[in-house]
Structures are given as C-alpha cells and as structure tokens.
C-alpha cells in the first residue's frame, strides 16, 4: 500500500481525478477486499506531531465506532437484519467448531449411557439452556419467568442427580414446551420436530441450535421495534461517535481531505461547495482502486462499489441492446416484450461481473444468447433470418464492448452518471427525465438512483460540517457551507 508520506494531499482535480463520464478499467477487482486506511487506526500516522492517548480513550473510541457502524447499517439499509455467522466451508474455523461440538455431544452421550449415568455435561447444559431461556423473556413474562426458575432449579436438579432420580428427557420436554411459547412462527416446525424426536441427545442438540436462532429472532425483533428511533437519531449519534474517534486519532480525515482536494478547482475560487462535493461523490462511480477510500465513506465502501458495478452492468447491457437493435432492425425497437426479454437475459449473464476482465470472459455467452433471442424473434414475426455476415459483425461489435472506452458503452455510462448526478444535486423532489436511449432501463435507473441518493444524503447529513471545514481550508472563500437536505 502506498505510504501516507508519498501521497500528495493537494492534487488538483484535473491532474488525477477520474472523469465521472469515464469508467476505470479495474481488471483485478473481481473479488472485493475491504481496505483500511492507516488513518483509521488510532496512533498510526506520521503526518502530525506525536500525542498521547490512554488505552481507555482508545477502547472507548473503538467501541463507539462499532456502535456507530451498527446504527449506520440500520439507518441506511431498510432491510437490515442480523444473520447467523457461519464459518466458510472447509475453513479451519469450521472444522474446529464441528470437532468441538461433536466432542461435546459424544461425551454427553457417553456420560448418559454410563452405569450409573454421569450428569456433569448435562448439568452444564441445563444451566446454559436456563440462562438462554431467561434472556428471551420480555418484561410481561413474569409468570413464565417464575415457572422457569422453579422447574429448572439447579439446586433441585443436583439433588435429583445425587438421589439418582433425574429425569433428563422430562426436562427436554419442558424446555421445548417453553420454547414453543416464546419462538417466532417461523420456528414452529422445528419445535414440532423436536417434540417428535425420541433420542434425548439429539433433542438437546436441536434445542441448543434452535435457541441460537431464537436469540437472533429476538435481536431482530428488538431492532425492528426501535428502528424508527434509531433512524431518526442516527445522524447526531454518528456525528458524536465520529468526533470521539477524531479526538484520539492524530489525523482521522487524511484520506477524506485527499479525496475532496482532487475536486477543488483553483481557477474557480467562488465555486459552491455543494458542486465540489457532488463531483467528489460522482468519483465513487469510477473509483480508482489505487486510492484509499475516505474515512467518512468507509462504512459504505462496499455499497458504493456495488453501485459502481451496477453502473458498469447497466451500461454494458444497454450498449449491447442498442447495438443489437441497430444490427437486426426488423422493428425490434417497437417490440417491447422482446426487448425486455433480451434485456433480462443479458442482465442475468452479467450479474456476477465485477471487472472488465470478468466482462471479457462472459461476452461470448452474451453474444450467443443475443443471437438466439434474435433468431427466435425473427421466427416469431416471420422475418428474414440473420445472414452470416450480420452475425459475424454483431459478434465483433459485442466483443469490443469489453473495452471501457468503447464509444457506445462510454456514451451510455455518461448518460447514466449524468442522471445520477442530477438526482443527488437536486434540492427538490421534481421528476428527472430518463436519459435518451435508456427508457427500457427506467426501473433499473430508478432503483440505482434511489440507493445512491440514500447513501449520499445520509453521508451529507452526518459529515457535511467536516466537509465544509476541509473545503474552507483547501480554498478559503465566501461560498456557503455544504447544504444538508432534510
């Protein structure tokens, strides 16, 4: 990674910032890896004089950033929910986890089958289950809480073990009955399955697995319940936590200043700061992977890069469609159903494309599908079939679209980016006209613009004051601060 010292924080917009009308050729960005700026790690920078912070301050800031990230996710993702984290297939972590779990259940089985039975593991298991059930109770569950305390009385269970009267299967039945009262409807089938399972170890194994899912359900229920409040207060909360981070970080806005400085034009000292910031946001549509993502955008880095990928896919799909219509003719332009069918087929093939090298690899498949769809269309309308020369020419034209500087692809990308620029720079909710030649992509454009606008608007609200300060330092002028749209 390029060091901070070797990077010029005052690069001018016309020297290194990629034009929003042109895509960056990212041949190797097939698999996305989040990079962390050195400026996001407390104490790691050589740009400022040394200062000292306590471990307590660092931990507080780190915890604050973690909480800030969670609040941010809830605020910008309307479908946000927690999911069970599973180690990847064949990973060491997964193998260790499976081995440890298998060892536990094997030991439990051995102890229960001993003569007389041993209940060391069983006692620990019942305690864990009791604690988990208690954590799932709501304030109104006073009667059920009392019942659980009485039935799963650990002292009583120890006495039963000493007297060799413990009925381990009975406790499994009781626990599943309580889970049935507490679980979400989506878990009903699993509870029913547990009640029908006869082998006691398998029942308890299923109980633990289901309780883990129920804990996740409860967390998501709580998030959903408080989501309106979190969304309403997230801007101020994120501002507060980021300010705490900056207090323990020597230069926590290094990459942000560098990003904004690329879009400051010294020849326009009175240019509105909103225009500068809009250009900076547009850079994310063609982000150069050699540049470190700004600290203020880092929590949304993957979202911005996903939008960049979708812009590429949309531009390529539209370019292929336009080339096909002009090559085939025969009224294909006026047949909306076939155009939509062809568009969806192309989109499906391009769905996993993350780079131009990916694109070059799948374009032959695109060509094959396009020619098949065109032949089907011509058969349907009784038109003249494509000649070998036409097919060969179409294959060559589609193959060239792998080049990001392909004229039609470049034109479509410019129209898409100009459309998005209008959306994020508009201070009103007035309708924006779909760019020429892209009416077939109205739904995709609307969805893309909505996601981009949501990210940009939230980012402006949280970090607008920081951006104004940075731009004032870069170009002190009388222009007003960055506008924050409510």
Automatic annotation (TrEMBL):
Domain of life: Eukaryota
Designated name of the protein: T-complex protein 11-like protein 1
InterPro entries per UniProt: Tcp11
Signal peptide region: none
Pfam families: Tcp11
Family note: Belongs to the TCP11 family.
Species in which this protein is naturally found: Bemisia tabaci
Region Disordered, residue ranges: 1-32
One GO term (biological process): signal transduction
